[in-house]
Amino acid sequence: MSIPPTEAINGLPFPGRASDAVFTTPSEIERAVISLFDQFRIPLFRYTLSLGLSVHDGEEVIQEVFLALFRHLNLGRSRKNLRGWIFCVAHNLALRQRHSNQRSQADLASEGAVAEGQVDPSPNPEEQALAAQRRRNLLAVVRALPEQDQCCLRLRAEGLRYREIARVLGVSLGAVSMSLGRSIARLMRADEV
Amino acid sequence: MRDENIHPSDQDLLLAADGEVSQRRAAEVRGHLESCWQCRARMAEIETTIVDFVRAHTDTAEHNFPPAVGPRALLKARLAELAETSSRTPWQALRSVLGRRELAYACVLMLLAVVGVRILYQQAIRHESNAVVYAAVLPDPQLTPGATRTVAIGDLCSMPHEEVVRPVPDALRRQVLNEYGVPNTRAREYEVDYLIAPGLGGTDDIRNLWPQPHQDTAWNSYAKDQLEERLHHLVCAGQLDVTTAQRQIASNWIAAYKKYFGTDHPVALHVRGPVDLQFVAAQTEHEVESTTIGEPFAVEILVAANKPRYTPHCL
């Protein structure tokens, strides 16, 4: 599984280490936030949509996340583990948006429909069909998982470490570990369903 | 230390693959995988599942995402606005909202407000001793007007004052605290006290009970106990009419204290513990030993000759 290293976040245009209390000007912070937006927009989009938001709501949540990030940095608050911070804020805003929307269950099914429509680069039609079936099975298993397990799995797929996931979801490290173990075990049996 | 021949669980394999185990454990799992085809197959299966899931997860709906150009430009504009707002001084922010004439009006209004507040503040300071201080230590006359029983002077004076006082039953104590809105968490800071002491003919009627602070103020329950002793002494010595004593202690016990002790401040506070505490009937009747008992509790110990010993409430 390809995991972006945690240190990637340190490649941000911030002076000093994450824990340094160095303040930058608003314009410097603005540039840094745009850079983070470029880096995390798609992962955040995937995550917010997986929580049941529409594309429009997902986009709005992402905007709010980065505006909040600007305020956070401008107030000189911690720059440690910004990836975890960004996903944490996105998670909370998305849940709040979903709650206010009371989105219908029917919309959630769109994910599966999209998955079926993907074009697989496999060499022949038979393999393409098998790969599509495999994806459908995996996504069906994921959708059947409890929401917290789904969140753990999707956050892990976005590259967050266990500690970061625990922080985003407000659960213990052990709970994340158990959840991922359980989910992978179910996914391994996806084709048996 | 674990045996490398024991097969790790799927959970262990996942944790090891994710780099979430200690270096020693990771080395153990690696060592085991080198020697065990079975576990390598399981690990490969886990990895394949992860790869397939990540592919499904990342492919899903990706073609539905709107291009980033528009949202990026929008975010830039919103950030620029936010950056401008945050770098503006409060004065600049006000100028951008108000016109010149409105600003002048606002300044005049603020000036008037400042002058008004200053006048009110000075008036409040003048009345502080009679309003702010008393408000905390005098009972609410609506809730606690005082209640007395018919009693003969001989009965009141047949025993020392402190022996006439009966402890307030718990249920009644809680009722009084509730009536005054004292939260349970702060109940220990108060003594539910008789307004008119039983030694002066007061009863344990709820109208004669109120929560008095132990320590937050100089005019606390200990000071009032001193006054009760003093009035009891005067009544029994025939120097004060019991009805007058009742009326004065019920209407404003602090004023009565000042009158009967001839002082504006409570006298004789003490820190040595119950055994060393001395009751002082009146400052003028005493020889005063000024003794400092360590910072920050520097106090005066006033030793009274020929007076009953005073036992305060447990501190």
Q: What do these coordinates show?
A:
The complex is a heterodimer of chains A (193) and B (315). Chain A is mainly alpha-helical and 193 residues long. Chain A has 2 domains: 86 residues, Orthogonal Bundle (Rna Polymerase Sigma Factor, Chain: A), CATH 1.10.1740; 66 residues, Arc Repressor Mutant, subunit A (Orthogonal Bundle). Helices cover 68% and strands 0% of the residues of chain A. A two-stranded antiparallel ribbon of chain B has the order 1-2. Chain B has a two-stranded antiparallel ribbon with strand order 3-4. In chain B, helix 1 packs across helix 3, helix 2 packs across helix 3 and helix 11 packs across helix 12. Chain B is elongated and about 105 Å long. Chain B has 315 residues and is mainly α.
Give the overall average pLDDT of chain A: 80
Overall body shape of chain A: globular
Question: What name does CATH use for the topology of the largest domain in chain A?
Answer: Rna Polymerase Sigma Factor, Chain: A
Number of domains of chain A: 2
Spans of at least 5 consecutive residues with low confidence of chain B: 127-135, 269-315
Helix content of chain B: 40-55%
In total, how many beta strands of chain A? 0
Low-confidence stretches of chain A: 1-21, 112-117
The beta-strand count of chain B equals: 4
Report the β-strand fraction of chain A as a percent range.
under 5%
Radius of gyration of chain A from CA coordinates: 18 Å
Q: Please describe the biggest sheet of chain A, giving its number of strands, its sense, and whether it closes into a barrel.
A: none
Strand content of chain B: 5-15%
Averaged pLDDT of chain B, please? 73
Could you state the order of secondary-structure elements of chain A as H and E?
Answer: HHHHHHHHH
Helix content, binned percent of chain A: 55-70%
Using the CA coordinates, give the radius of gyration of chain B: 38 Å
| Largest sheet, strands/sense/barrel of chain B | 2 strands, antiparallel
Q: How large is the count of helical segments of chain B?
A: 12
Order of helices and strands of chain B: HHHHHHHHHHEEHHEE
